[in-house]
Amino acid sequence: MTDALREKIHILADRRQSLIDELRAKPSGLGWCSRHTDLADEAIRIVFDSLLQENPGIPPIAVLATGGYGRRELSPHSDIDITVVPSDEASPALDAAIKQLFHNLQWAFGTVLKLDVGYAYRLIADAPGLDAKTRTGLMDMRHLAGASELTRTLDEALAHSFSVGEFVLSKMREREEMFSKYHDTPYIVEPHLKEGAGGVRCFHCSNWISEAIGERASRPTRAYDTVVRFRNLLHLHSGKCQDLLSRGKQAEMADALGQDMYAMMSKLVLAGAELHSFYLRSKEKVRESRFALAPGILSVQGEARTYGAIDGGKAAVGIALATRLGLTVSNISVPPPTGIEGPAAVYALSTGEATIRNLDRCRLLEHILPELTACRALMPTDTVHQFTVFEHTLRVIRNLDELELGTFLGDVKASVNDLEPLFLAALLHDVGKIDTSQSHSISGAHIARDVCSRWNLAENVGEVVEWLVREHLLMARFIRVRDIANPNTVEEFASLVGTPQRLHMLTLLTYSDIRAVSEDTWTPAQETFLRELHERTIARFSANEPITPDLSVHRNRLLRQLRGKEDGEAIQAFLNTLPAYYLTSTPPDVVRLHLEYAKRASEGIPTVEAFHRPDLGATEVTVCTQDIPGLLSRLLGVFYALDLSVAGIRACTTSSEPPVAVDVFIVSFGGRPVPLATANQLTQAILDVVQHKRNVQDLLLQKGKDPTRKQKVFSYNYIEGTPGILEIQSQRGRGMPFRFSRLIADRGWNVVSARVGQWAGNATAAFYILGDEGRAITREEVDASLREVAPALPGLD
After folding, report:
1. 3-state DSSP assignment of residue 328
2. How far apart are CA 202 and CA 278, in angstroms?
3. Which end of the chain is less congested by CB atoms within 10 angstroms, N or C?
4. How far apart are CA 122 and CA 85, in angstroms?
5. Higher pLDDT, 654 or 411
């Protein structure tokens, strides 16, 4: 750095101080900013000329002023935003020279002139990929020094790659975000002079939008100059770049100006209201003007229309932009597209239900995704779905759209790295129903693979979409009929899902799919079980290894957590009698409660406790009594007799003498917790049955139920293990758990837990079963036993 350079910059610092003193003595707006900008321009040119003198022969470069500096609107502490455009990025000499330039500018502005300077290094080739925020700064660029032809070339490249719709939408979103952060009306006591409604950004944004759609930008008005003047004074009195005009600063500024604070602020508020009206007017211009939203899509007086030959994917993006801008989409059918840019199509479809309905309105959807529109009038074959396959699918998308941050599912959605595969899978998840020759999940997965191939999507994207379509019922089945408190269930589910990202997407798809079936299909219990399975599976992924099968680990953990509140020997003895599935899935506070119940049961005093579970929309009923053969079947008979629906069963029998059963049931009455009167009746009926004061068969007959009726099983599947899992699909009805538990008891097997659900006109259940003395039951045993009941019984796919 030369002495001449240092001397010139210090002279400019004295001149800047004179400008500051002048502003304090005679407040000014744009006029003062313009002279302040001239001083900054002079500093940059001095530094640049010095650079050329010290580095003769370097390749051409251009230095540009951008943002507020480009608009010549430097307030006392505004940032100096500059962009350097090189002609030859690969030149070693240029690289060293630019580093020297940045160093000298930082010294000149940061050290001497006391202004923050921000640098950007832009290649002309980067222009097509620049985001809207960067383009906004470059819209106000001015050439400062160097090769002016580079500035012109960059300007041409920016214009050539400019997407009007994307830019306008980003500016409107930016304004709404700032209004939400600061204030959305100019009539406010403490205004934000830059970003709030009525701040200078409203005027800037109005001009950016106007220029983007081909309208003339507005010239600064007296109101704009007023707001700029107050912003200059706020910087001056704050000694920094500050834009929130607090009451304290208002009083300070009014004293300095010798004005009444309230009268002063009223004038400022009216000026801000005028600036805000510029922004509102620019939004109206978007609906009144004619401009190209995207290739093939034109906005004409608030209506989006297609023109010329179109690419289906790019045109879909145009419709997405029109939708988000609030434009009407013409219902005139578009011509068949000349091609489909797949990634663009997926992006457009992922913007939500409103876009998809508009794509359907202009008949573009049938060109880019005929697999979906072919299902427009396709009727579901079950009695649960309320809509055709097409309408159901769009409501799945609606449910995804409506998820909000701060909720469990909204936060899961925010954790998905890329939502586009999820939205495409949601659109294709039921298209396989058009082929009735096989499972719609399988045929749908084939269709999904074909769509991804046709659209030339990345292989990893296609794999995720195909997997989601094929497995879109997986999580629903687990939360409906599997014991998700069992670590083996989580282990199996985690192995089927594979990764946290797939888990997140499947969780969202499961919720959205079930909720879109009809008004009452999504219940609090399902949401609770979905969340629990998601959280347990995430924990499994985080652990990075299977849950330990060593029961002593779980037993000792419970012992440590319980000791000190109960007799240590009694706790140890109780834990030693409990089976593995109980130890690995029961929290300490529940174990403590069950210990007290078991003490009373061993003395011949049964316990029946019922309490509401608002999170499940059901009632949890705990029965603790001395075990007898067929106990579970008898208890289920009581629930059946009282018309209660059983959603979950956790049955546990201790190995103590006498053995004690600790059975927990999740039951509901008409989809709601059990009413108090019915709960009292239920408690007494269970006590009567377990104390042999009443026969469950007589209770069933009294309530009009047939205790000898056989279960007509439609299909089943058995997964071997300890315990094994017997999955059942049967006719819809509350009696299925009772009849199957009776069948299982007749064979000398034990049910350790079960899940029961009603879905699509069928009853579904999963019974976790063991043989005598905890023995694993083989598939052959199950097949033979169930074939005795129903010789023509098919297996469950």
Report:
1. strand
2. 7
3. C
4. 5
5. 411
Helices 3-25 & 222-238, crossing angle to 10 degrees? Answer: 110
Strand partners, 290: 300
Residue type for position 70: G
Q: Give 53-60's long-range contacts (Cβ < 8 A, gap of 24+).
A: 53/2, 54/2, 54/100, 55/93, 55/96, 55/97, 55/100, 57/93, 58/91, 58/93, 58/94, 58/97, 59/86, 59/87, 59/88, 59/91, 59/93, 59/94, 60/87, 60/146, 60/147, 60/149, 60/150
Phi first, then psi, for residue 719 (nearest 5°) are: -110, 115
Which secondary structure element, helix H or strand E, spans residue 453, and what is its range? helix 440-454
C-alpha angle 294-451-497 in degrees, rounded to nearest 5: 115
- Contact partners, residue 241, CB within 8 Å, separation at least 6: 75, 77, 78, 79, 116, 235
Write down the residue that tokens 């304290």 correspond to. Answer: 248
CA distance 409 to 401: 11
pLDDT at 797: 38
Least Cα distance to 448 among 474, 434, 469, 430 occurs for 469
**CA pair distance 516, 392, nearest whole angstrom:** 6
pLDDT greater than 80 at residue 789: no
In whole angstroms, how far apart are CA 67 and each of 225, 394, 684?
A: 17, 42, 78
Q: If DSSP codes are grouped into helix, strand and coil, which group holds residue 577?
A: coil
Q: Which helix (H) or strand (E) holds 551?
A: helix 551-562
Report the candidate in 703, 701, 659 with the shortest Cα–Cα distance to residue 682.
Answer: 703
Helices marked H in 26-120: 30-54, 67-70, 92-105
- The confidence band for 743, taking pLDDT boundaries of 50, 70 and 90, is confident
Worst-scoring range by mean pLDDT, 315-329, 530-544, 712-726? 712-726
Whether residue 87 has pLDDT greater than 90: no
Tokens coding 363:
């008949």
Read off the amino acid at residue 391: E
Q: Name the residue among 469, 424, 405 with its Cα closest to residue 442.
A: 469
560 sits in which H/E element: helix 551-562
Contacts of 236 (CB under 8 A, 6+ apart): 20, 23, 24, 76
CB 237 within 8 A of CB 256: yes
pLDDT tens per residue, range 498-515: 999 999 999 999 999 999
Residues forming a β-bridge with 80: 117
What is the Cα–Cα distance from 759 to 383, expressed in whole angstroms? 9
Q: Which residue has the tokens 């119940």?
A: 597
